[in-house]
Amino acid sequence: MTQVKDTADAEIEALRATYASEIPAKAAELTRALDTVLHGLGLGQTVGWEELEYFAHKLCGSSGTYGFHHLAAVTRYLEERVCDPAFTELAPNLIAEHLAKWNSLFAQQARQAHGRQSEAATPESLVEPLNEHLQLLVTQAVAA
Amino acid sequence: MNILLAEDDPSIQAIAVLALSRVGGHTVTTVKNGVELLEIVGKAKPDLILLDVMMPILDGFETCARLKQSEATRDIPVIFLTAKAQIHEQHHGMNVGALGYILKPFDPMTLHVQIDEVLKNHAKAA
After folding, report:
1. Are A95 and A142 in contact (CB under 8 A)?
2. What pTM, to 2 d.p., does this model score?
3. Which residues, at least 6 apart from B71, have a Cβ–Cβ distance to it below 8 Å?
4. Do A12 and B18 touch (CB under 8 A)?
5. Which of residues 62-81 of B touch A (CB under 8 A)?
6. Interatomic CA distance for residues B14 and A19, integer angstroms
7. Residue A1's pLDDT is what?
8. Which value does ipTM take for this structure?
């Protein structure tokens, strides 16, 4: 049993290394979907949200399963926002501002996961600034 | 156990197959979406179907509903394996006839145990 476990551990580690090497390509897919949404928002259109949800959902599930919990937390945050009317019904400029902030954190986490760097903060604390920023935007929108 | 896995993400397919076969000792057949699953389910005769929810062409919920509508496949146990974690999504999965829900991310070393637990819990309830 121990031998099976050791062999499986080694195979999982090999798959994890392969997955890490693929993160830039997976991140690029998600970023392209994000760019489509942002471009649409700039034109006053609602386009590309389903595709954005799809890529965020897929990256969340796979990165977490491969042990990249910070990347999973950041992509889960995006997936949840995309499905949340409190976010998607904000003014386009506020949505774009928040997505830009998200993208900065995402790019950082994608780089760290690709380089398999150690993850210091907890996944929950990582997205806390995003929650605070969104709360601020919602408050501003209500006040306006 | 002969498991049929529908999952469109190759990286999840790879680690799930490893988890179920090398760690769990099961035989695994994979397909990329619900249409492919429905095409081969009769021939594959699985003991269990693991279904992702968000798949192109035909999603997991609709695939499960169609499996449960057919006399030939309605008794095959279905478990969703998905990152769709919200309660209403889990309820929807149960409403279309699944036995249970296993959430991604999953631990590849214990995925087979989670499956056993879902099957045992269902057997107890039946």
Report:
1. no
2. 0.90
3. none
4. yes
5. none
6. 10
7. 59
8. 0.89
